[in-house]
């Protein structure tokens, strides 16, 4: 199984990256692992013309697109800031999750095709918000968005989300054992819902973009 790990923290040596280390070290030996750190990629996070005109991909974006095309399972780890992922990671989604590559609305319809079907995903988010507050006060908004409006929208299934909080005031030290066990179970149980539906989309997308 090809596993893609995406470290979404803009700084190195942070707790989200440590949790991704645990995930990586818990993967079965049979997995082929690709790990990319957002902070090391060179790209503009701004989709300046929206979908009116395609912005050419920088080499690092193209490499990441290839990694998504190849992967059977993707893992994102990042801190939650102001209810969402850091700006660089959000910008990467804007630049990479494009119609024609990851999804496509059907002509004259509000329905769409999910081109990343046959793949699964896990999300690990660190936060200062206790999970109970995240659910009761904010309706688990970041969880629903990543599971349904981001990864699920383009076909990843299942999508699992682990909210790790609170981190501050000793919360990380108190809960690291519990989170480690959960991450180990996640890494040891990855399975796409319909692996037979996996398609390679990048070559046809790039060919269409050059015409």
Quick structural summary:
The protein has helices spanning 15-26, 59-70, 87-96, 131-136, 141-154, 171-187, 202-209; strands at residues 2-7, 32-37, 73-79, 103-105, 112-114, 120-126, 159-164.
Features:
211 residues, alpha/beta, 5-stranded parallel beta sheet, two-stranded antiparallel ribbon, 7 helices, 37% helix, globular
Structure, explained:
This protein has 211 residues and is α/β, with parallel strands linked by helices. The protein contains seven helices and seven strands, in the order E-H-E-H-E-H-E-E-E-H-H-E-H-H. The protein has helices at 15-26, 59-70, 87-96, 131-136, 141-154, 171-187, 202-209; strands spanning 2-7, 32-37, 73-79, 103-105, 112-114, 120-126, 159-164. A five-stranded parallel sheet has the order 2-1-3-6-7, with helices on both faces. A hairpin with a 6-residue loop joins strand 4 (103-105) and strand 5. The radius of gyration is 17 Å and the shape is globular.
Quick check: average pLDDT? 96
Question: Could you describe the largest sheet, including whether it forms a barrel?
Answer: 5 strands, parallel
Number of helical stretches of at least 4 residues: 7
* End-to-end gap: 33 Å
Low-confidence stretches: none
Helical content (DSSP H or I, runs of 4+): 25-40%
Total strand segments: 7
Strand content: 15-25%
The value of Rg in angstroms is 17 Å
Name the strands of the widest sheet in spatial order.
Answer: 2-1-3-6-7
What is the H/E string? EHEHEHEEEHHEHH
Shape: globular
Described by its quaternary structure, the protein is: single chain
């Amino acid at each position: 199984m090809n596993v893609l790990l995406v470290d979404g923290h803009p700084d190195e040596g942070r707790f989200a990256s440590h949790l991704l280390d645990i995930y990586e070290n818990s993967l079965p030996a049979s997995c082929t692992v690709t790990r990319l750190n957002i902070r090391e990629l060179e790209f503009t996070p701004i989709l300046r013309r929206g979908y009116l005109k395609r912005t050419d991909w920088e080499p690092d974006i193209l490499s990441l697109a290839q990694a998504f095309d190849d992967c059977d399972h993707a893992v994102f780890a990042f801190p939650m800031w102001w209810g969402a992922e850091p700006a660089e990671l959000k910008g990467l989604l804007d630049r990479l999750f494009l119609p024609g590559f990851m999804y496509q609305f059907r002509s004259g319809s509000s329905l769409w095709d999910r081109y990343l079907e046959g793949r699964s995903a896990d999300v690990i988010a660190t936060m200062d918000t206790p999970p109970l507050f995240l659910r009761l006060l904010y309706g688990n908004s970041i969880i629903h968005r990543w599971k349904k409006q981001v990864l699920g929208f383009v076909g990843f299934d299942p999508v699992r989300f682990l909210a790790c909080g609170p981190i501050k005031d000793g919360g990380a030290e108190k809960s690291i054992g519990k989170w480690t066990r959960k991450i180990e179970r996640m890494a040891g149980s990855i399975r796409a819902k319909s692996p037979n539906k996996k398609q390679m989309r990048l070559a046809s997308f790039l060919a269409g973009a050059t015409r």
